[in-house]
Hints:
Chain A is of the alpha/beta class. Chain A has ten helices and 15 strands. Chain A has two domains: 12-125, NAD(P)-binding Rossmann-like Domain (Rossmann fold, 3-Layer(aba) Sandwich); 134-288 and 314-338, Dihydrodipicolinate Reductase, domain 2, CATH 3.30.360. Helix content of chain A is 35%, strand content 24%. The first copy, chain A, starts with 11 loop residues before the first strand and ends in a 7-residue tail after the last strand. At the A-D interface, helix 2, strand 3, helix 6, strand 12 and strand 13 of A face helix 2, strand 3, helix 6, strand 12 and strand 13 of D. Strand 13 (270-273) of chain B pairs antiparallel with strand 12 (257-262) of chain C.
Amino acid sequence: MSHTHAPRLDPVQIGLIGAGRIGTSHATLLAERVPGARLVAVADPRPEAAAALAAKVGARAATEPSEVFGDPDIEAVVITASSVAHAELVTAAAAAGKAVFCEKPMGMTLEEIDRGVEAASRAGVPLQVGFNRRFSADFAAARRLIDDGAIGTPHLMRSVTRDPGLADPAGVPPWTIFTQTLIHDFDTLLWLNPGAEPVSVYATADALVAPAFKDAGLLDTAVVVITFDNGARAVAEASFSATYGYDVRGEVFGSRGMVSMGGGPRSALVLSTASGRAIETVRGDVELFADAYAAELAEFAEAVRAGRTPAVTGADARRALAVALAAIASVESGVPVDVATGAVR
Amino acid sequence: MSHTHAPRLDPVQIGLIGAGRIGTSHATLLAERVPGARLVAVADPRPEAAAALAAKVGARAATEPSEVFGDPDIEAVVITASSVAHAELVTAAAAAGKAVFCEKPMGMTLEEIDRGVEAASRAGVPLQVGFNRRFSADFAAARRLIDDGAIGTPHLMRSVTRDPGLADPAGVPPWTIFTQTLIHDFDTLLWLNPGAEPVSVYATADALVAPAFKDAGLLDTAVVVITFDNGARAVAEASFSATYGYDVRGEVFGSRGMVSMGGGPRSALVLSTASGRAIETVRGDVELFADAYAAELAEFAEAVRAGRTPAVTGADARRALAVALAAIASVESGVPVDVATGAVR
Amino acid sequence: MSHTHAPRLDPVQIGLIGAGRIGTSHATLLAERVPGARLVAVADPRPEAAAALAAKVGARAATEPSEVFGDPDIEAVVITASSVAHAELVTAAAAAGKAVFCEKPMGMTLEEIDRGVEAASRAGVPLQVGFNRRFSADFAAARRLIDDGAIGTPHLMRSVTRDPGLADPAGVPPWTIFTQTLIHDFDTLLWLNPGAEPVSVYATADALVAPAFKDAGLLDTAVVVITFDNGARAVAEASFSATYGYDVRGEVFGSRGMVSMGGGPRSALVLSTASGRAIETVRGDVELFADAYAAELAEFAEAVRAGRTPAVTGADARRALAVALAAIASVESGVPVDVATGAVR
Amino acid sequence: MSHTHAPRLDPVQIGLIGAGRIGTSHATLLAERVPGARLVAVADPRPEAAAALAAKVGARAATEPSEVFGDPDIEAVVITASSVAHAELVTAAAAAGKAVFCEKPMGMTLEEIDRGVEAASRAGVPLQVGFNRRFSADFAAARRLIDDGAIGTPHLMRSVTRDPGLADPAGVPPWTIFTQTLIHDFDTLLWLNPGAEPVSVYATADALVAPAFKDAGLLDTAVVVITFDNGARAVAEASFSATYGYDVRGEVFGSRGMVSMGGGPRSALVLSTASGRAIETVRGDVELFADAYAAELAEFAEAVRAGRTPAVTGADARRALAVALAAIASVESGVPVDVATGAVR
Lengths: 345, 345, 345, 345
């Protein structure tokens, strides 16, 4: 037997911070679906969570992010910790010379994002943000068609996110629907209207799923209208309780045509009975976006190995957050808000 | 051969006012698809238009509405004249004791509608308004499901109208997109949220299809957000230029599920070639709504024969127009507008 | 009021023979959906059936076909009597100088069909057969695409008919699945492979829905393979018991692409709930083919008025029956049968 | 940092034989998508092919299968060599004590398959055959529904395979369409009619895509009808040239309902333009079945690690081949053939 050694590029050595739901999903994908990455460490302040996930994916466990940042063998970190900790972790990771993949939102304020971007820039490390929809086959194809001029100039846009359920309303921070959920829709709409800038935002929101938590600041249903400087109007819409599953859809209607994304069935199976036709729906984000999550992590590994800017950057995180903050200000004021200045109009 | 005469109910003798595009469609449907109606007269100020349509459908031609109103054999009139004349014609027809079917909008102001409603009430004649979507099989089925509780309480709603093209921008009156096009969407949304009242309206609109006509007041692209007193948020959206055809869709997302309407193909035909899969789209309202138009006219004939209130009334016209007027006020002011008072919020 | 009389063509005066299920449907469509026709008489040996239908559509009732054939005002007859009587009625109607529309099958033997065709030819009257699928929008569009070369030469074809249920197995004559049901599929496949001739037929059939009636000769499930002289292979398939409704589909796969027909939902409505997505299916032929039935009757009226050959002729009936007879012979022999000679191969 | 080592099961050490198209696909999936497997060696008689694939997946290259069979660290082999070599390789691998995954067809004769099955049985090693459709989400869900009784007893079945193109007709062995392509459909139909046995087979085939190669025995278009002992009739159909891509579909119609599989779009993207609606089709098997291929290889790794019988066995390979051989005999004889005896009926 010949012993030709593989000339494959060495996988990027990765440490992951945050062993929660999305951290578990990302860690598993890194271990099983991203050949360009090797997940070597998992950190979480809860020792059992860290140990369990580490064991599952064949990595070492840690409780302190510093254990990851201080490991010279680790080239890159994936941050899936609590959202409020994102910005600080990005900054610390970049300062330690690690490439950074950060789940959305990258920060809770524009200043936090700016600090993280600056830290990455200073360290000369790639910084990618987890706007996974761009990696979904249908949304990616839509952007290519828009770039090719297939639908002309966008006039009317739509992005919808409906979550299958609100497990624990008590644990959801105020404004989550804007900063955590609709932030995806805002990025999607900005990205699908290339070259245009959002001018103003009108938002209205309510607690219709869990009205008892409205006083605690939990809003579970929201509609946002964004007016762009090229005239396009975009509607983003979210709910925390879709009984039928996890529903992410998009639509861009332009001067020459329309692209529609999402809404596909769970599989190609159709059951026809005396009750009519039945089609299974997708029940969760991890199922819907399995390929997209794997693709964004592969993109990160490639960008790190190539030393190039990833496809989604801190600047993208900043733009989406600016829209989210304007939406929050609009709900508070009841009137449209200027995205650039945050002023009511 | 026995000579059993048919015990069918005598068809309602109908006169139609206005031989334009929709008048021609309605006249043809009355002649060919509505056995409970007999179209006996067609009036239009343009003698050739009246004569041509009358000849096509086997009716008499007239140039003056009064010729129709004064004919004692005519029991009911269908008003498909210019929108600005609707209210006056409704009032005159009712005063002459005729049952009235009026195309939308029934009037350009709430006062006009009130006068027409009052006239019909005084004369004791049925008055129906042309909100045809309620008679489309999918929208009608959606309402039944909502009544049955299949989707629970509405949380998020959507209604879309996209017209295939703006033939003559110069001839389109200002605010047409709200009073003529979105009026359908407003009625649909009000009807699909039974028991709820619209509280406030935010609208934004622009001239993206024909920017040169913006100064003349022509808006061709609009988005409207309606907040209801049961918490539901509804988005209505219209464009005057869908390259791919005539696009009417609706969606009601509630606490227990969602109904989606519209968006169907022109037929069940699918063509698969080296370019992929191709499906024909519906190109015009007359094609899309042929069955719905026939059904609303049949409903009118039945209501007249039975002496009962039709399924769509002047009160419905008033509610939809109130939303349209609030939307216009919102575009003018840039802020949300109270539907009941018309005040900016 | 001017009194311009309509220059419309006079409707064709029609008598209908057979007030059963399909006769009732055709009579109603003639009265309500076919302006070029006027149904003036309905004949059925059961006086009450004749009277009831006649009353419904505003026509005279008769019990004897001869009353229709002898009426000089009647120009054309629509034959919806029992299948076994079709051929004789066609011949008698043609002999009386009436144009003839005959439901399928036009006859139970090739000789019967030949006699009817000859009678119509001798009398110089149009003769149309009720192969309604050709008038369904999707199938008609498929044929146009095939004529335009969009899919190249047919290689593999499929036509499916599944009926929603077998109400009374006892009343179904032997071989019905071939002569009454699959006859539609045979015509469809011949028509969608223009210029080609069927060479041989292999068929297999069984009583799976109502096994108790197999001994009485009732077959309720069948598959037929037709080999054409241009190499195309077509599969026709039928069942008498589709729980989910009335299912008619077609597919033509050729050297350059494929057309697919049928399988559409009852309406564009989709219901999404915790159970997934639900779509209503079409439940009956009268619902599925309402427009197609109206179109074939309109075609008949037009052909009569224009004195031209209708779109579907007695020759088409003969070709389809030849395939049905070969299929029956194949079931009896267990081997493929030559269509031209009826010989086992 | 704690140094908890992962308690994951050790991946199964695998050698792959045959670095062709499907070998490359399987090797890549083993390396990137099957965490329970580690591909350590790739053998191919062409040294460059072996070296290139080995390098791509980080394995050692070999030219002789014996190098793989003789390696004590290798626990299992995946056979993706030329079909004619399958049976001998299965037997040799089993004799060497390796677990075996063999691409279809497992052998070209029933005797070959029997020898392989016996060898695996004697060695006590798992033997899995590459009927990947069973692992496709829609087909797998269909089988579960059938097992649950959702569609009752199968009456009419269909399985279709259409390949996107016939790259090199000259290189295709005779009967390939039955032994290589339709073998998938035969397995699918047998598997979706659990408990039933195929009784007789009628097949017809032709060279419509590449007629010039018909004399050389190449058939590129085929239709097969299988009659089962529970009365179900199944149609399998294949073509070597679908311009629109790779088309695999299935349908099982039973006494209580129907399941339909396949035919899904490439992604959820829909493009609507002046030409209508356009949907991308799937272009190749590796794209269509990526998840199914990964799942069958994962099943193999799991079965090996657990020492249990895999989900698809040599007995399944034998049953499917028996149908293929009967189909070939039917084409040769022109009449139906008995599956059990191979006799013409």
